[in-house]
Amino acid sequence: MNLKITTRDFKFFMIGVFAMLLFVIIYDWDDFEKGFKSGYNNSSQIEKTE
User: Fold this and answer.
1) 2: left (phi > 0), else alpha (psi -120 to 50), else beta?
2) In whole angstroms, how far apart are CA 36 and each of 4, 7, 8, 46?
3) Alpha-carbon distances, residue 49 vs 26, 43, 46 (angstroms)
4) Most CB atoms closer than 10 Å: which of 7, 8, 24, 26?
C-alpha cells in the first residue's frame, strides 16, 4: 500500500482538530470554566518542594 501524506493533508488535519477542540470548548463552556477555575485554585494548595 503506497500512502503519501502531504503537507496539505497534515494542515487540513490539524485545522480539523483545532476546529473540533474549539467547538467542544464553546459547547461545554460552563463545565470548561468550572474545571479551569477548580484546577487553578487547587494548584495553589499543592506543596512546592525545592
Assistant:
1) beta
2) 40, 34, 34, 16
3) 37, 13, 9
4) 24
